[in-house]
Amino acid sequence: MPTDTITLVDLEVHYHVGVPDAERAQPQRLLLTIEMQRDFTRAAASDDLRETIDYYAVSRRLLAFGEGRSWKLIEKLAADIAAMVLVDFCAEEVTVEVKKFIIPEARHVSVRLTRTRS
């Protein structure tokens, strides 16, 4: 299991998410934290971006990830993000946290899940 991690913390995105149709009607602000694990030994030795995970590219993909899509559950959204990062960015393991600001009395509600390349 890799022990090297790149973390993208609290990336602000606007996606259509929520169980009621009215909640999904307009995109809402979410914060995404993505922890991507992979062995960075070759990247550290070569100083070559191709040997690591391009976190800027991950951020751009996530900013556009919600276009034309909607989710009822942030659990499903987190799982979809994790699958994309594993496949498209060659992470060995990814942890995704989605923060949602729907309950006024709480700072946020979040879902956090970890998936491993199979």
Give your account of this protein's structure.
With 118 residues, the chain is α+β, with helices and mostly antiparallel strands. The protein has a single domain, classed as GTP Cyclohydrolase I, domain 2 (2-Layer Sandwich). It is 30% helix and 35% strand. The chain has helices at residues 21-24, 41-46, 55-64, 74-88, and strands at 5-17, 28-37, 70-71, 93-100, 109-116. A hairpin with an 8-residue loop joins strand 4 and strand 5. It is elongated.
Average pLDDT reading: 96
Helix-strand category: alpha+beta
Number of helices: 4
What global shape is seen? elongated
For the biggest sheet, the summary is:
5 strands, mixed
Provide the CATH top-level class: Alpha Beta
CATH architectural group: 2-Layer Sandwich
Q: In what order do the strands lie side by side in the largest sheet? A: 3-1-2-4-5
Number of domains: 1
Helicity, as a percent range: 25-40%
What is the succession of H and E elements? EHEHHEHEE
Fourth CATH level, the homologous superfamily:
GTP cyclohydrolase I, C-terminal domain/NADPH-dependent 7-cyano-7-deazaguanine reductase, N-terminal domain
Beta strand %: 25-35%
The radius of gyration is 15 Å
The overall strand count is 5
The CATH topology: GTP Cyclohydrolase I, domain 2
Poorly predicted sequence stretches spanning 5 or more consecutive residues? none
Q: Distance between termini? A: 12 Å
